[in-house]
Design brief:
Length: 660
Amino acid sequence: MIGVSNKGLHLDGKLLPLYSGTIHYWRLERKLWNGILDNVIKMGFEIIETYIPWAVHEIEKEKYDFGEIDKNKDLDAFLSLCEEKGLKILVRPGPHINAEITYFGYPERILYDKEIQALTNYNTPCIYAAFHKQFPIPSYASQKFYAETGEYFDALMPILLKHQYPKGGIIAIQSDNETCYFFKDKAYAVDYNKDSIQLYRDFLKDKYIDIESLNKCYRSKYKSFSEIEPPRSFNGKTKEELPYYFDWIRYKEYQIMYSLKRIARMWKDREINVPVFHNIAFQYYTPVDMINTEAMDEIDIAGIDIYRNKEDYNPLKITAKYLSGSSILPFIPEFGSGAWYDFGKTFTPEDEEFTTLYTFMHGIKAINYYMIVERERWQGSPITRDNRVREGYFNFYKKFNEFLKEYRFNEMDKSRKVLVLRNYDKSRFHSLYSMLDFVLMNIPYKLSKPSVDLSFKYINTDVDHWKRDEWVDEVSKALDEMGFDYDYSDTHLPLQKMKKYEVIFASTYDFMDRDEQEKLIQYVEDGGHLIIGPGVPYIDTNMDSCTVLLDFINFNREELKGSVTLIEHPAESEKYLNKIGLNKEFDVSQKEVELVVYEGNGRKLLFMANPTNNNFYDVTLLFNGDKVLKAVLNASDVFGKGAVSISIAPYKVMVWEVQR
């Protein structure tokens, strides 16, 4: 009954943009719910989102309070009130919620159950050192953990079934929350729980089928899968030993997806059949594999959370571009409408206006503002816990929601022709290439870097974090300086999505598996223009010879529709883009200023952003012919032939509708 597309949610054929805001009902006085929801509606919201915390509702094992004792916990009443007011609802029942509450929403008994605890590479419980109270984290592989979670879901199920669309307002449900080992995402930090080790061996058996195939890949002599122990640091001496470590990294990704899939299925088994979403904490690299997470049948939407002040704008841009290039529906499930109590700097209304506009400008199509109603341990929301309105914040959201609705922005698309692909396996390599992973210590990278020389031609082993892709960073810088808009993704992106772009920059290092090399070749054969660098892969991740792409490049085919070009230095990109004939409808004289064009519904929007603290008084906007630009947000009407002069203040986004 509910479908998902790149425009939003489809409820029985009617399109609903996914713009929502967070309210924590149990943290608010019940007598204030009615007025708070009225103010939320006045801001223009049609969807609200809420956690449903296990530890808040469970009084003791198998005994729950859903409003019978504490009226603020009456989930049924809260959902009913939302429905009376015509609001749709996203629910996030955990089992993990974080939300800056003690134990992140788990009952204490769950976390201190030794069968459930995730273990470090020293076989000790892995401790999350939260400011409010540290605790041992659960293992995503623990069988007892899922049994306990199932009992909680059973208690919650009757309420959710009553309010599930179309009978009620619940239109989507979350499968867990920020599933990334509680930010202990270094390769060997966790998880060595006995159930995790068994799941690791099952993963290897599913991949290799028989032990002979694994031994051939590992250059090993195991007699059975039960003999294989997971690595606890990198101790390899040659590149031929890498497949063993690569598989541990793949397993860590698999374990996250296993958990998300299992929790989503638990809800399906309980007849909750609305779309399932997941929020990634911040990563677009291992151990989180966003593209393959969203490709699972059980997960309909995967998004990435982000909280940034206006001065720290670049991560906003990267996240938005990555989601725009990778996701079915570019969605930020938690976007900072305010921030938690120990965040470095409280968001001002100016922060929230700039970061919101800037993120939408770079490709976001759906968003949940966390939080539009304040609560304890939070600051900077448009509505307070006692239902006072903070006008600076409130007025911005009201104005912006009006803009989104008037232009049906969720149905518009960026006019971009370029995609930049990060090399996912390079990220895996830098993650596995580490000797020390003490969970409670922030060890400098140089102290944990192995000293062994693996004799790669193109990979720099001095990279300080596995998210880094130096060639991609240089390409992005070059494209920004040239004024070309682009999306990000990684090498897991399906071919069909790649074909939307006229030009792809793909980072290629020493190793790349055959299927990914063949995917790039197919993109070129279908007419795409591929630019790779800094080298051409000559082995796969098993460290076996694999020269598919190299052979393709060396085999001159004049009838080829597309093209493939190797460049070591991305600064050379401009001449290749000129050769391809890629053009820009708009350009700008001041290279720090950014432009993005959106089209759809017979309309065209031009975004201009100044993400710096400089006040640019005379920016020349360049174009062909006559243009009339009608002011939409933070702008004045302008018109001219070939060029116009515009002033743009620091940390400002201006929007016009292009009329000629």
